[in-house]
Amino acid sequence: MLHKKFWILVLCLGFIFPLMSHAQSRDRDVDKRDLQGISPKYHKYIFSVAGGAAVGAGLGFILPGEKTPLKLMMIGGGGASTWFLHTHKATLGPFRDWGMIASNTALGSGIGWLGCNCDDGLVGGALLGGGGTAVWEALKNDHAAQNTFNSAKNSNSRK
């Protein structure tokens, strides 16, 4: 146990000291450039997800139940992330699809866990939310799959 803690300390110091020496090696005064980019205006996605999780946790503390704050925090954070990604199409760039999958996985997990108050609900909700979103994101720009679906839908409506 002592050896493990020693090596963890060595790794942490090994990562921190090179970063500190590079940051302190510059010989210039502090100015506006040092604070550039640290603003809620530039990090709207992170702040909206954190805000949704905070609102959910706050509601969870008000409502009775076991582990309700964690469940509602998952629902609030996942819901806020999903809403933000639906309304801001350029957020996360090429990783937007993965962000949608993660958001809906958290949302589905929270809803499933809250619904049955068991671990099966948590796993089922995660699989439904994440898997359903993965299928949707994979097929939303697949014109062959959309044509097949539309032709099957049209052939059923004729009968």
Tell me about this structure.
This protein has 159 residues and is mainly α. It has a domain of 101 residues. 75% of the residues lie in helices and 0% in strands. The chain is extended. The termini are far apart.
Tell me what portion of residues adopts beta-strand conformation.
under 5%
Judged by helices, strands and strand pairing, the structural class is: mainly alpha
Q: Let me know the average pLDDT.
A: 82
| Contiguous helical run count | 6
**How are helices and strands ordered from N to C?**
HHHHHH
The biggest beta sheet, please? none
Give the N-terminus to C-terminus distance in angstroms.
72 Å
Helical content stands at: over 70%
Low-confidence blocks of residues: none
The tally of strands reads 0
Radius of gyration, in angstroms, nearest whole number: 23 Å
Specify the overall morphology: extended
Output the keywords.
mainly alpha; 159 residues
Topology:
Blueprint (H helix, E strand, L loop, with lengths): L1 H23 L19 H19 L5 H20 L8 H21 L2 H21 L3 H16 L1
Helix pairs in contact: 2-3, 3-4, 4-5
Short structural summary:
The chain is an all-alpha fold.
